[in-house]
Design a protein that fits this description.
The complex is a heterodimer of chains A (676) and B (79).
Chain A: H1 12-38, H2 53-58, E1 67-71, H3 75-81, H4 85-92, E2 116-120, H5 125-139, E3 146-151, H6 158-170, E4 174-180, E5 183-184, E6 187-188, H7 201-204, E7 208-213, H8 217-232, E8 238-243, H9 261-269, H10 272-282, H11 288-311, E9 350-354, H12 355-369, E10 373-377, H13 394-397, E11 402-404, H14 409-421, E12 425-432, H15 440-448, H16 450-453, E13 463-468, H17 484-488, E14 494-496, H18 501-512, E15 518-523, H19 524-529, E16 531-535, E17 547-550, E18 555-559, H20 562-575, E19 581-585, E20 588-590, H21 594-604, E21 607-614, H22 619-631, E22 640-644, H23 653-659, H24 663-673
Chain B: E1 3-7, E2 17-23, E3 30-31, E4 36-41, E5 46-50, E6 55-59, E7 65-68, E8 72-77
Antiparallel strand pairs in B: 1-8, 2-4, 2-7, 3-6, 4-5, 6-8
Classes of the chains: A alpha/beta (676), B mainly beta (79).
Bound molecules: thiamine diphosphate and magnesium ion.
Amino acid sequence: MASTTRDLGIDPAVLVEIYRQMSRIHEVDKAIQAGLSSGRFQFTYWPMTGQEAIPAAIAPLVTPEDYMLTIYRGIHDQVAKGVPLKGLFAEALGRRDGVNKGKGGSPHISHPPSGSMLTTAIVGGNTVIANGLALANKMRGTRRVTIANFGDGATSIGTLHEAMNLAGVWKLPVIFLCQNNQIGEYTPIPEYTASKDFASRAAAYGFKGVRLDGNDPIAFHNAMKEIIAEVRDGHGPVFVEAVTMRLSQHAGVGWTTHLSKEELERAKADWPVPKTRKLLLEAGVLTAEELDAIDQAARKEVEEAIEFALASPVTPAEEMLVDVYGDPEIPPRRHQRVKRAAERLPQGERKMMAMYEAIQDAIEISLELDPEVFYLGEDIGDPPGGVFRCFKGLKQRYPERIRPTPIAEQAIIGCATGAAIAGMRPVAEIMFIDFIGVCLDQISNHAAKQRYMSGSATHVPMTIRTITGGGLGGLGAQHSQALEAILLHQPGLKVVYPSTPTDAKGLLLSCIFDDDPCVQIESMLLNYTTREEVPLGDYRIPIGVAAVRREGSDISLITYGWHVRVCLQVAEELAKEGISCEVIDLRTLLPLDYDRILSSVEKTGRALVVHAATEFCGLGSEIAATINEELFAKLKAPAARFGAAYAPIAYSRAIEDAQIPNAGTIAERVRELLKY
Amino acid sequence: MASTVLTIPKLQMSSTEGTLAEWLVEDGALVQAGQPIYTLETDKAVQEIEAPVSGRLVQKKPAGETYPVGTEIGEIVAE
Ligand SMILES: Cc1ncc(C[n+]2csc(CCOP(=O)(O)OP(=O)(O)O)c2C)c(N)n1
Ligand SMILES: [Mg+2]
């Protein structure tokens, strides 16, 4: 390296390192565009031409221990963070040797060894998850920093608002890095916002925001150096607006067409790759030969990576159901009949508990068992100790691990997801299941899919507890619905739905210590009206194991939640008419215990699935169809389902009673089925 | 002699075809990597496609027609 002739405002060796990263990014970009336009390979590419300086200038300031999240466009972020190019290219081409086994692809890279934790294609989706990773770092007492990269377009979406508000109030060690390339897809600033800048928004959340020139690697590096140090020192989050320019198309190859020819030429003059190269040369830091050697080495690394990727086989179809869950037996499939052992409850002491008390017992046990378990949700501090009273007195005993949140369900689920990716076991409370609509993107696009999209490079051992208000009456359409079918349609989640205090405790403990995202749906009606002797201490009700609540010989009533109780009443009534009902409590809705379901119906020859959820496209249809297909020859009547009428839940008691299956209407359906 | 095949690229998730609007370089001419060699029209945009490598351009399909993604339209033969 030549001795410098002028003061660059940066250690020349650092600038060389930054340039080396820019060169690697640029060679990757060039090779992808060349490969796509020549047809050498095909994949979906959102080029980052023009934005190379941002991650390159950060690279010398972070280590693989620091977390990074980015978006579909963030191939430059991946390269600079240290994701190996071979695995990166193989992933982009959907190959077996990709860092995520070819299941995530170019928009969904995760590579924990280099600190690249999650990549989203949902605008703004990673910002709330970054909070969770940052929270894990903070709770574990590390000095690691988490950087969430997103575009300027993401400043319009609510997720970022929730993320910034939570990060501010919890003083999380996270940097929100807005790569402002001045356009979102095809809509440039100022068409989509009246804001003059984005950095000034941070002040409204109580933390620092700075606007930096993302095309000036020296100034950007120097500013980021201070910011990263502050965040490591625990001074809370910072919002960085890195102003840059997207020189390429939104997707595909070629120069952008959203700028005029003159605008494009002006923008290219500020393109950090050639600009920095020129600076290094003119300042006498490197000779032309030395710069060529850097570019040549990058080109060689890229070419080897592409050859490696093209030689790797396309990830085969046999991989389809692997990585949906940790256990490949979990995804439902035809003729599946997995045998799972039932629980053995401890023989020791028991105590009379209502369901909500049994849940509190599970919460306390989990906190004792594992310091990495923590809880977050609205109002879970004292008072009131959770609006459903499951957290009474816990905040004082576990001040850091009982975390009352803002009213922000995306922030809650995203934070839990991020902390879970970091290896913690967070438990999030969503007060009513009706509110999952506002965080469904986090649940389904992120928590549920992350294991699969990352080819199990990461997984999400988090639990969501949520309440269904149906059956109590008077809560209205937005606090009463049974929405489990929505969750069952999202591969990657496990769903349990206890009907007894003993099960509520044992299933919750199983969920918390399961390595995949689980949802426990609790019934508000059962929480306060069901009491029984519950075993003390730690025990688990296995996920995927149904229970026979009453034996019978004429028909199997297959149900869950508060309808277990209703079906037991029905069985009692019908016994007087000489009809013998077996009542099966599913307890887990996914994975379903088809072995116990089919065994019961093999014996009775008739089945009725009953639930409070809408009958149309409900779980009952699924189970009835399976019984009909599997046991056709043995059935005395077609397996049937009975769920709620197709209407929102009414406030009128008369309507609600009639629209959801009740003891009278269920008994009627059973009598009909016995007439075949 | 190494040659690089040129096919109608899939530039957008939605693209299934593209129009080879114009060859910008004559058949048989020498091209440099990065030099625009033809214009491609899709439903989203008109853009110039650059030579992925340097070499001699061999045109295999006429301009002014629309071809499915993946159609071989030419090649660049290394000198
Ligand atoms: C929630 C959501 N809405 C819409 C889209 C479609 N979409 C993909 S990229 C994009 C533009 C995003 O712009 P910006 O955040 O500025 O990032 P950039 O692509 O410029 O890097 C849009 C609208 C999406 N992926 N996710
Ligand atoms: Mg943008």
